[in-house]
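Why do we care about 3D structure at all? Because function follows from shape, and shape follows, mostly, from sequence. That is the central idea of this module. The next example makes it concrete: a single protein chain, its amino acid sequence, and then its structure expressed as tokens.
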Amino acid sequence: MRAVVQRVKRAEVRVEGRITGKIEKGILVFLGVGEDDENKDLEYMADKIMNLRIFEDDNDKMNLSVIDVGGSVLVVSQFTLYGDCRKGNRPSYSKAARPEKAKDFYDRFIEYISNKYGIKVESGIFQASMEVDYINDGPVTLMIDSKKTF
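And the structure:
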């Protein structure tokens, strides 16, 4: 799995003009599922993201997680995180999971975070054309790969 994680002051996702997910302070997660991902990738990614210490403590050091600050999470599916641009000008998405697998992992990722951490999790709609608005706080933006390729 791959994710782009952004610390946000607020974020929302809309489908056909309707808000499907909205949070205040927290993290925005663009999530992609790879063809060879397994349950261990899902759990690694969810636990890593939820425990990232990217929020400031009283000494202005990034020592707190989204859990520590009582934040929320907005998850948006993003298969283009598996776009391979090394050859030619048209990205190849051959390493991205097929839609059935990707939707299953996307839904289970959201459920895992919600159940394990008891935190508010909002989301977009899988395979929909979405508009995402957010205010990146910092800015703080991180890339994570469950296979640790970067």
